[in-house]
Write a structure and sequence with these properties.
The chain is α+β, with helices and mostly antiparallel strands and 250 residues long. It is built from four helices and 15 strands. β1 and β2 form a beta hairpin. The chain starts with a helix and ends in a 14-residue tail after the last helix. This is DUF4843 domain-containing protein.
Length: 250
């Protein structure tokens, strides 16, 4: 056997060993998982949860997740953990979230409970930051998609989507005009809706996420509020807001 053949055998053996080692390494590598608030296509930095909009009991905030890499070939689980913020002031619960074999994305809840007589955050806001809990299956994904920032309030306050919203959602100001606490309280009392989103659609009966209405519904609520305000003004005089400006709707 000449020297060339010997060298070829050594190189070939080395390449084979390297390939086998790489296969072994990658088969055991953890998958990353991205988490975020907002919609499946439009992440937001944080979401505000307002206890004043909620009747006593349990509610939830939904978050999105997506596996970075190939979908798992078996059912897997991941968990969240609170890493900072007002964890001692909020009654929250986290479960084990299951990703079915062959799936790689979805939505899941963080449960928030409001006990009777709950009075936190009435004079200011709070915050809790959630992250992925380390496990043998998953590690954190992209840095910008690794935390869930929940802000907390317990008083009537301007919704995050009043002046601006990401398509396919419309800002509330499109239908209800300039914001004031008094106006928003009037809207809540008149419509029974709080902290809702307005989705642009031409579908007759679209499938919408919880607490979301169509632009057609929003236009109808605008008329409802205008008629209710007209009745109020006739019976009590002009409704004035906290800045001593008369409440009006577009």
């Amino acid at each position: 056997m000449n020297m060339f053949k010997i060298l070829l055998m050594i190189v070939g053996t080395g390449l084979f060993a390297c390939t086998k080692n790489e296969e072994l390494y990658f088969s055991k590598e953890k998958r990353g998982i991205n988490i975020w608030l907002g919609t499946s296509t439009a992440p937001v930095d944080s979401v505000t949860y307002n206890f004043s909009y909620v009747v006593t009991g349990k509610d939830s905030v939904m978050f999105n997740y997506r596996v970075a890499g190939y979908p798992p070939d078996h059912d897997t689980e991941f968990e969240l953990q609170a890493v900072s913020g007002d964890t001692n002031l909020v009654y929250y619960s986290l479960g084990k979230y299951t990703i079915k074999a062959g799936e790689y994305q979805g939505t899941a809840p963080i449960y928030i409970e409001k006990p009777a007589g709950y009075s936190e955050f009435q004079n200011g806001s709070g915050k809790i930051v959630f992250r992925l809990k380390p496990s043998d299956e998953y590690e954190e994904g992209a840095l910008e998609l690794s935390t869930l920032n929940l802000a907390f309030k317990n008083y009537v306050a301007k919704p995050d989507n009043w002046d601006a919203a990401t398509y396919p959602y419309f800002a509330m100001s499109r239908y209800f005009g300039t914001y004031s606490n008094v106006k928003y309280s009037f809207i809540i009392q008149t419509t029974g809706l709080v902290n809702f989103k307005i989705y642009y659609t031409v579908a007759k009966d679209p499938a919408l996420e919880t607490n979301t209405i169509t632009s057609t519904n929003a236009a109808a609520l605008q008329v409802q509020c205008k008629l209710a305000l007209k009745t109020y003004n006739e019976e009590h005089g002009a409704l004035m807001d906290e800045n001593n400006n008369q409440v009006v709707f577009p």
